[in-house]
Amino acid sequence: MPAVRCVDVCKTYRQGELEVKGLDHVSLEVGEGGFVCLSAPSGGGKTTLLNAIGGLHRIDSGEIWLADRRIDGLGKGELASLRLHQIGFVFQAYNLIPVLTARENVEFVMEVQGVPPDQRRARSMEILEEVGLKGLEDRRPAKMSGGQQQRVAVARAIASRPTLVLADEPTANLDSHTAEQLMELFVELNTRHETTFVIATHDQRVMGYARRIVRMLDGRIVDDTEQEAA
Asked: Three-state SS for 62?
């Protein structure tokens, strides 16, 4: 069963008097444990598709399935619960809570889930070590580099053990070395935990790590290619 399945998905935006097709009859399947990059120029539809898969954007027509559950018709509460328990998000902006430490940022999702404090702390410490931040758990974001902040964001995204991670331009604010480290971390998490990754990017460095590249233009899929990852 695919981890993600989109069937003839359409999404239209209005820009003044114009209608712009954000997604134009998009169909896509991503298998469990997949590592896929959505590549497109700005406005090509990659972020719109990523947000639709994550239930952040309502679609006009079509179907979106996560495993055996159709999500495009779910209410706000059901979508919020789905994102809380099944999907991890990594954004271009780190979106960390500045007054919280690295550990507290990672614990935040688990706190919302109702995980007991001792379990939250143990899990957050384990995950921060896994992403290479052991010893930095008590630092606040302002005292961390961009790469370290993005690792905290990744730790937070996987803290709830999601089956799917959606990443939108995760390397956009990182230098080449840090971007390479982040992608190697994604590959390790994908391999070790069989977590499915779908990454929206136009960064060639990122695409080199993918096992599959889906290219989009003007809201349509124009190419879908398997490749040997770096």
From this structure: strand
Query: Strand (E) positions, the chain?
Result: 2-15, 18-31, 35-39, 61-66, 69-70, 87-90, 164-168, 196-201, 212-217, 220-226
And the tokens for 178?
């840090």
CATH node for 2-226: 3.40.50.300
How far apart CA 33 and CA 195 sit, in angstroms, is 5
Q: Residue ranges per domain, the chain? A: 2-226
* Separation of alpha carbons 202 and 121, rounded Å: 36
Q: Supply the pTM of this predicted model.
A: 0.90
From first to last of its 230 residues, the chain has per-residue pLDDT tens of 799 999 999 999 887 888 889 999 999 999 999 999 999 988 899 999 999 999 999 999 999 999 999 999 999 999 999 998 899 999 888 889 999 999 999 999 899 889 999 999 999 999 899 888 999 999 999 999 988 998 899 899 888 888 999 999 988 888 888 888 889 989 988 998 889 999 999 888 889 999 999 999 999 999 999 988 76
